[in-house]
Structures are given as structure tokens and as C-alpha cells.
Amino acid sequence: MDIVLITTVIASLFLVIGVAEPLAARMRLPYSVILAALGILIGVGAIFFLRTELTDALNPVAEAILGLPIRSNVFLYVFLPTLLFQATLGMNLRRMLDDWVPILVLAVVAVVVATLTVGYALSWASALPLAACLLIGAIVSTTDPSAVVSIFRSISAPRRLARIIEGESLLNDAAAIALFGLFMGFVMLGAPDPALTDALARFPLLIVGGALIGWLAARIAVWVMALFAHHELAQISISVALPYLVYIGAEQSIGASGVIAVVAAGLTLNLTGPGRLPPQAWANLREVWGLLAHWAGALIFILAALLIPRLLEEVRLSDFVLIGVVILAAIAARAVILFGLLPLLTLLRASPAVERPYRVAILWGGLRGAVTLALALAVTESFRVPVEVKRVVGILATGFTLFTLIVQGTTLRVVIGWLGLDRLSPIDQALSRQVVAVALQTVREAVAQTTENYELTREIVRSEAKRFGDRLDEAVKTAEASAEILDRDRITLGLIALAGHERDTILTRVRERTISARMAEQVLSDADRLIEGARSGGRSGYMHAARRSIAYGRAFQAAVWLHRRLRLSSPLARLTADRFELLLSQRLILRDLGAFIDGRIRRIHGRRVADLLHELLSRRIEMMETALEGLRLQYPGYVEKLQRRFIRRTALRLEEREYTTMREDGLFGSEVYSALMRDLAVRRAGAERRPRLDIAVQRTELVRQFPLFADLDDAGLKRLGRALQTRYVNAGEVIIRKDSMAKSVFFIASGAVELESAGQTWKLGRGEMFGQMAILLRKARRTEVRAIAPSTLLVLDEERFRRLLTRSEAIQKAVRASAEKRGIAPDKLLSDDTDAA
């Protein structure tokens, strides 16, 4: 075929891609529906001009279109890795990890349920073998992620719900293709109907093998990319090679799922890339992948749609009945998940509550697309699949895809309007009015500055200022006087605005490199949790998210276990250093929020809401300072190292700004500027390296700061430091339960705890101890102890505590004071231990 003609056809397809997006926006239809419609029209037109006798002038073009090398391998090996890899790079993984249970259950369970439902329904309604029916079920069980995500963006769905659906749509591609590979093997080999247990037993092996290959390859790629820190194009090129190599490697080397391998590689790069690559390089890499995925997604839809006329050439009247069976079975299977499994997960608190209108929108928005057609094409191309099976698979998959695109896709906005999802709720309407009022205040300040800079005529300025001021006053008045908004909702709106400004401030600090790229994603995720917490739970949701941002997570607890049990200290050192940097970053951000409350929120929502937000902000600052003080006590000097690093990075940023300004003023040329920036990059690389945190040496220093151990000599302090175990507890965690046996004494290094006994409560803070009374009385504990702040505790076992008690007068004095508070004779407590000594 003429290369010029093929090039012309491909260039024309890109022209179609360029026209399709504005056309979809104008017609208010999903982008994928427009692409599919244009592809079908092109395919039908090519067949028409090739077979008509009206003219032969367009025959070469029609032959070039129909002769394009469109094979299933092109879809699966060229386009699919690009789409999957880019989708994983665009995810907010830290937020999705919060909802990994519903995402994984929906992705895997939904595909299995749809495959079985469609498969057994077809087996009942047709004469096809069960293996072929299950193969068709796997082919039609995967939804189109881009279509689903665009639906939720168009109806302004809650972010958490949109993330769950996006994650489910991505991962169900992997699960469906893995099942497709299983049943394709049964069909091709001509084996009898497969046992479900055999198929499902092989399913985890495909997933685990692909995940391991993807993770390992991505780790190696990130390591190599980090070596090329000053060669951005090389880094991007390596990232482009990564998904294709892992896909082919998984499929061809060990027979694992290439889709799973690509997803695992993308997730790994998403998690590790921002901390290892320069911020601008990471941003450019994601932009390149966004463009590649846009082209790949559009091309795969158009090329797959070109095949539809050919796939439907041999359709029979009886096939329409089977298409109806597939449609009903697929919709029923998705309804079981949405109206059965999702509410169950909500009851188990594993998934957020999904309101019924949203579930109906998800049900009707389950569009199928290019992946379904590509898998069907793979079946029709195989010479080892029976001819009748190939014909039925192609027709059923194509017919079902057309139904979802033409019927569901074109009526989706009507359904959304009927459900009322296109209308803002009262609180969202109030939020929009608040946004207008805040924006106009900012515009007024900017316009005032502009009039001064340009020295405009005073009369013009006065008249325009009055006109703009009237609009601003009306906007503020409307925002303040919304009768349908309760005071509780005003507080919620204020918290949403405060959290949004916090997120904007974080982005500014990241661009200025005040906050390192390593911590940027973490602090942004915490800000997103604050926004969603305020939207869903108001004041309590906001504070819950704030407490979570400084709590000791499960990863930290696991690192403590590894350090204590296996003497592996590197994970704990890394997470502790991360915690230091996170808390310092939060302190930097929180201290700037007060001005926003006074400057913006007070003007819109009034003094009462502003004062309440100041109170909540003060509580957040206090929690953060308490957590930071605990680390500072345990690791003295490390905060100072981080602060010095912050100053060095700030100085480098200011130095870079000065060089750029002087170059723009023409004081020196590009050669000098390039040399200065290279030198700056070298010094910045050194400043970006975080100082090493040595965990092993710090405990003795922490023990030395306890007043209770002031009378011990250096040798005694070192022995005690080795004997004490460190325990980290979150606010609300129960440390000692009533009626438990006494085995240890606890010393509070940082934070605070609350003791409750016989209906009375009292609090203990830094430098105090608890748990000693039960050991000395040799009785089961009658007191429950609960942390009321993130706390660091030092734990000493009973035997060592008794020996310490005999040598330390300070400890004996503390025991006496504690006993007198509870009405216990202190001499009786201490006499047994003194005699034993």
C-alpha cells in the first residue's frame, strides 16, 4: 500500500480527533460516543464507496482505510499499555489507598459477577459451549474508564465517590483481561467446559506474577531515572519504554497478566517518582503522558469503530435475541453490585455511602468501548477458535458495545437531569455565591493596584469603582443573607474555604520549593482530606481529618515492630524523618491561615464563624506542636538540622530568582545564565538531601531529660536507655484496660493520657508515669488509661522497674505522691521492695 496514502489517512484521523472534542461539547454527548460514531461513519463510508458503481475516484482512499493494519495485537500491545499507564500516573494514590477495600472488591467482584451472569445466561439461551459463553462474559464485563470518569465530573460528584469509581474502572480492565486469557485458553484448546474452581485458582497467579514484574521493573526504572537527574528528556524516554517492556515481559516470559504488570508499574512510579525526580521533570513527564494517552484513547476508539461494520456483516435475526440476553444479564449483574454489594460495604464501613441517584447514574453510565472490541477482535483473529464461536463473539460484543454507546451514552444526560444530579444542592449554591464574593474582593484589590500603576483619570476610576463596588456589595450581601443556609452550614462553608486556601498555599510552597517534592503529595492529600471531611462531616469531619494527618499510621506501627523485633531500623528512621518534615511543613502552612480567616471568611460569614474557625485552627496548631515537641524531645538536634536545610533551600530559591531577574534586565547573556544555573543545580541537589536520622543513639538523650531519672549516673542512664522500649500511641488509643494484669510501667516522653478509675478521671503529661500502682500492689489493674494526644511512651518491665525503684529517690518520691493522691499508704508500697533489695 502507498506509504503516502497511509500517512494521509493517519493524519486525517488526527484531524478527526481534533474535531471530535469540540463537537462532543457542543452536542453535550460523551467524547467516546462521538469518536465511535465518527469511526462507524468512516467505516461505512469506505465500504460504500468501495462497492458503489457511482464513482471509482475514492476507491484508493477507501482501500487505504479498510486496509489499515488493525489487529487485536495493535490494541493490546500499543494502545492499551499507554492508557493504563497514564491512568495510574494521574491518580491520587494516597487518597485511593484510603478506599482500597471498596475499589478492589468492586473491581474484582464486579467482573467475576458480570462474567458468570452473562456466561450462564448465554449458556441457557444458546447452544454455545459454557467456555465460550464465559469468554463473552469476560469480554463485556469491562467498563470504559474515561467515559465513567467524565460522567462524574459532569455531575460534580463527591470526590471520594469519583475516586472509587475511577479506581474500579481502571482495575476491572485488568481483572477482565485476566479472565479473558483464562477462558480463551479453554476455547482455543477445545477442552470440555472448564471447572470454575480451576479457572479461579489460576486467576490469582496471573495477578501476583504481573504485579511483581511491574513493581520490580518500575523500581529499577526509577533508580535509573534518578541517575539522570539533569537529563529530563532521558527520564521521559525511560518512562515511555517502561509500560511496553513490562507488558511484553509479563505476557511472554512467565505468562502473567501484562495488564496487571502495567498497572503495578504505573502505581509504583506514581508513589516513588515525585520523591526521586525533580519537580519540574515530574510535571513535564505527566504532561507528556497525558498527551500520549489522549491520542491513544482517541485512536483506539476510532480504529475499533472502523471494525464494527465488518464485525456485523454476518449478523442473523437470532443474534439480536442473544444480544438482548447479554444486555439484560450485564445490567442485572451491575445492579447486583451497586444495589447489593455497595450498601453492604457501607454497612461494614468499608465504603462511603453512595446515594441511590448516584448508583442509578453509575448503572446507566456503564459504557463499554474499545477494550471490549479489541478483545472480541482477538477472538475473531484466532484460527484455533471454532468459526461459529468467532462469529457469535464478534457480533455479541459489538452489538452490546453499540447499545451502551448509542442508547446509554446518548440518554445519559437525560437520566442525570431526571435524577436531579445536574442541580446544585443548597450548600453548593451557597458555596458558589461565596466563591463569587471572595473572587470579586480579590479582583477589587487587583484593579485598585492597576489604576495606580497606569495613573488613570480620577473620574473614570471613581465611576468604575462605584459600579464594581455595587456588584461586590451585592455579592457579599447575597452570600451573607442566604436564608436557606443554617449556621452549621455556614461553618461548613467556612471550613471548606479554609481547607481550600490551605491547599492553594501548599501548591505555592511546592512551586517555591519551600516544601520538598518528597512531602508535597502527602501534605496535599491531607489537605484534600480536610476538604472532604468538612463537606461530609462539617466541624467534626474537619477535625477528624486534622487528627488523622498527625496520627501514627499503620506503616509507622509496622516500622516500630520491625525495629523492636527484628532490629531493622531503616524503615522507622525514614518514616520518623518523614514525620518530622511533615509536621514542620504543617506548622509553616497553619501559621499563614489566620490572615485568610480575618481577610476573607470574616467578610462573608461574619465574626462568629471567623472566631470559631480561629478556635479550630488553634486546636490544630496545638496538636501539631504537641506531636512535634514529642519528636524534638526524642531526637534533639534533628529539628534544627531540618530548619537549617529549609533556610538553605529558601536562599537558593531567592538566588535563582535574582539571576532570572538580572538576565531579563539584560545584565548578562544566556551563556552566563546557564553556567550559574548549573552551579545552582549542584548546590540545590546537596540542599535537597535530607539529613540522616540516627534512631539508636537518641533514647539515652531522651531518658536524660526525664526529671524522674535525674539522680542516676551516666552508666545507669545508659543501662536504663537500653532497657526501655518506645511505644507510639494515637489519640483515643487505649493503653491499659481495666482488670488486665500488671506487667509494665509507662513513662510519658511526650503527649498526654487520661486515667479513669471508679468514675473519676485525671490527666498526666510529659515526664510523669503510670502503671506502677498495680505492680506495687500486686493486683489486677482497676484503671483504664487512654491517650488524649499522639504520645510517645517509654515502657519498662516489672523486674527492671523494681530494681530502678530501689536505686532512685526521685522515683520513690513520685510513687509516694501518686499513692497519697489515691489514699494508699506509701510506706507500705515501698517497704516490700526495699526489703527485697
From TrEMBL:
It comes from the Bacteria. GO terms for molecular function: potassium:proton antiporter activity; sodium:proton antiporter activity. GO terms for cellular component: plasma membrane. One of its GO terms (biological process) is regulation of intracellular pH. Keywords: Cell membrane, Ion transport, Membrane, Sodium, Sodium transport, Transmembrane, Transmembrane helix, Transport. The chain crosses the membrane at residues 6-24, 31-50, 70-89, 101-122, 128-149, 170-191, 203-229, 241-268, 288-308, 320-341, 361-380, 392-421. Its main location: membrane. It holds the Pfam family cNMP_binding. Residues 708-822 form the Cyclic nucleotide-binding domain. It is a multi-pass membrane protein. It is found in: Cell membrane. SUPFAM superfamilies: cAMP-binding domain-like. PANTHER family: SODIUM/HYDROGEN EXCHANGER (PTHR10110), SODIUM_HYDROGEN EXCHANGER 7 (PTHR10110:SF86). This is Sodium/proton antiporter, CPA1 family. It comes from Salinihabitans flavidus.
